[in-house]
Amino acid sequence: MNASTLIKVNDLKKYYNGEKIKALDGVTAEILKGEVVVVIGPSGSGKSTFLRCLSLLEIPTDGHILFNGTDITDEKTDINLHRQKMGMVFQHFNLFPHMTVLKNMTAAPIKILKKSKAEAEAQAMALLKRVGLEDRANAYPSQLSGGQKQRIAIVRALCMNPDVMLFDEPTSALDPEMVGEVLDVMKQLAHEGMTMVVVTHEMGFAKEVGSRVIFMDEGKIVEENSPATIFENPQSDRLKSFLAKVL
Amino acid sequence: MGTQISPVMAQWLDTAPQWILDLPKGLSDFCYKIFKCFIFDDRYMMFVKGLGNTLILTFFALLIGIALGVIVSLVRVTWDKNGLEMKSGPRKFFLGLANLVCRIYLTVIRGTPVVVQILIYYFVIMTSSDKITTGIVAFGINSGAYVAEIMRSGIMSIDGGQNEAGRSLGFGYVSTMRYIILPQAFKNVLPALANEFIVLLKETAVAGYIGLPDLAYAGSIIGGNTYEYLIPLVFGVALVYLILVMFFTWLVGRLERRMRANER
Q1: CATH code for position B210
Q2: Residue B245 contacts by C-beta under 8 Å, 6 or more apart in sequence?
Q3: B165 contact residues in A (CB cutoff 8 A)
């Protein structure tokens, strides 16, 4: 395994209903430190399942995931420990509605990392400032717009100082005019060298920020290449017809 | 032969102020009956002690009920969500066993009248315990079954994304429940829990079946002693329950508003 490899996925399979539905049918991939890997594909292609398997929100039927050199699919691995190092951002934000923005961000650092309240809050405020939301620290999620919620969800994950950020269609539930503000935060993060795996339909983001694009269909990786090659010179017919529809 | 007057009447004529005796017949009779049911022989003390017992029963049964209810609902939810996907082993076995015990508990308790349950505790299971303890155990275990189903519905009403968000931050299953799911679930089911609490408060009235002198028991005893039923049952018992329920409803309403203030 290469020294700069952060995640190595080996022949990952996820079946539902016995073997009737093959959401993932043997996916092998490698994610290097500092890379922004964008996963695209039609709905039902397994791209979200792939991402959710990385943080074990779905338990793979078969295959292995090595994260920082540890096999997290091994039953003996403490998955909670590894999830702390994997930030996850969801399509529907999933902020905790009974907590203020600040509490949302500091709950995990205080309870899990045993940080002091002052330290956790200072870190949270600094992150809020970076995304321009420091004035909403004491607001409740229901008082925020969709774009604000997703920016909070991103910085909430960052509060745990993760090694990698996983984004599961982070802009799909947003009003079109709010997509930009979330993508800007993600771009900023990418430029700072954060390792990111992004499942998205935003082809512009993939082109501009992605260091690599993975195209999936029917639970398999069909094509994997630099954004320029994927979009300018697609190889497979499946990718060509997909791009023809979405671009 | 002179008219015999009862000791109650004698004391009434002795102590009542003249102006009350001079009231129109209906009104002065009413005052006499109040005197007879509440004041004579310190009969009001039966109601006071009965009310005390009712409140003690309700309070401790409520504590047991909530503790049992939360535990049982967590076992049921955990099994329903994860049980089938768990790999076989001791953990699956014990969780499955706990789930089975919980289901039997729910079926038996919800399937039989609480009166029958309290009689069984008193005459069969807890023959050496005092009545209050027996009552607390009976009503607590009974209430726990209903609280469990209320809490279960609350936990299931929370979007699965909340659990995933908690877990992906590194919280374990138990911490996610404690810090993220349960606080929201509790808020959602507060009206249903308040309803269960009110039902429990009134249900303790069947404690009289084992001779536990609660509020309702006081009413029927005084009624039997005085042959006056309207006044002790309506003013001594029904009205007091009504006031209690109205007071607690108001209290829960305030709590609910305070918890909801965070949203919208």
Answers
A1: 1.10.3720.10
A2: B198, B201, B202
A3: 88, 90, 94-96, 153
pLDDT in tens, B114-131: 999 999 999 999 999 999
For residue B9, count other CB atoms closer than 10 A to its CB.
Answer: 15
Express each pLDDT in A182-210 by its tens digit: 999 999 999 999 999 999 999 999 999 99
Question: Which residues face A40 on adjacent strands?
Answer: A215
Interface check for A97 against chain B (CB to CB < 8 A): the answer is yes
Element (H, E) at B218: helix B215-226
Residue span of the structural domain in which B126 resides: 45-263
Does residue A86 belong to the interface with chain B, where contact is any CB pair within 8 Å?
Answer: yes
ipTM value for the complex: 0.92
Q: Rounded to two decimals, what is the model's pTM?
A: 0.87
On whether residue B11 sits in a domain, the answer given is: no
Q: How confident is the model at residue A223 (pLDDT cuts 50, 70, 90)?
A: very high
Give the separation between CA A105 and CA A156, rounded to whole angstroms. 4
Rg (CA), chain A: 18
b vs e for A220-236, b when ≥16 Cβ sit within 10 Å of the residue's Cβ? Answer: bbbbbbebeebbeebee
Residue contact B263–A140, C-beta within 8 A = yes
